[in-house]
Amino acid sequence: MTPPAQAAAPPARPQATPRRLGRGTLQFMEPPRIVSAFTVVGPMEGKGPMGGYMDTTLEDTFYGERCWERTESKMLREAVEQAIARAGLAEAEVDVALTTDLLNQCVGSSFAMRSVKVPHVGLFCACAGFASGLALAASLVDGGFARRAVVGASSHHDAAERQYRFPTELGVQRPPTAQWTVTGAGAVVVAGDGAQGPVQITHATLGQVWDMGLKDPYDMGSAMVPAAADTLVRHLHDTGRGVEAFDWILTGDLGRVGSRILLDWLKERHGVDIDGRHSDCGAMMYDPSRQDVHAGGSGLGASACVVAGYVFKAMARGLLNRVLLIGTGSLHSPTTHFQGESIPVVAHAVCLERPGAR
Amino acid sequence: MASQTQTRERQAQVDYQQFASRRRPRPRYLRNALLAFLVGGLIALLGQALTAWFAGRGLPEDQASGRAAVTLVFLGSLLTGLGVYDEIARVGGAGAAIPITGFANSITAPAMEFAREGYVFGLAARMFQVAGPVLVYGTASAVVAGLLRYLLVRG
Question: Considering the entire predicted model, what is its pTM?
Answer without folding.
Answer: 0.92
